[in-house]
Design goal:
This protein has 107 residues and is α+β, with helices and mostly antiparallel strands. The chain is built from two helices and four strands, in the order E-E-H-E-E-H. Helices cover 18% and strands 31% of the residues.
């Protein structure tokens, strides 16, 4: 297996990018907007924290960035690859090869 490193990434190309990202859930026949118009760009080597009160959409955002949850509107790209253009099978294959998650659930 060929090793990879951060230096192999173009420092000017976003690792994670989303434009106009939105998510709404259908509840009682109505759309309940959770996230609206999120623009985000993370460059190689950058670190960020997503902060907010309970129910503000932090987990929803992370799930959409990782291809676990479908977006209602907008675009999500990871390393130049559009997740919103992929079908469910392609996203599952991509996640299996390139992404890992650590879950934290409160009971």
């Amino acid at each position: 297996m060929k090793p990879t490193s951060e230096s192999a990434l173009d420092p000017d190309t976003a690792v994670i990018s989303c434009r106009g990202l939105s998510k709404a859930y259908r509840e009682a026949g109505r759309d309940l907007p959770v996230l609206q118009g999120i623009d985000l760009e993370v460059l190689p080597g950058e670190k960020l924290a997503i902060l907010g009160v309970s129910g503000s959409g932090k987990s929803t955002l992370l799930n959409m960035l990782g291809g676990l949850d479908a977006v209602t509107g907008g675009e999500v790209s990871v390393c130049g690859r559009s997740l919103t253009a992929m079908n469910e099978s392609d996203i599952a294959r991509w996640r299996n090869r390139h992404l890992g998650f650590v879950y934290q659930f409160h009971h």
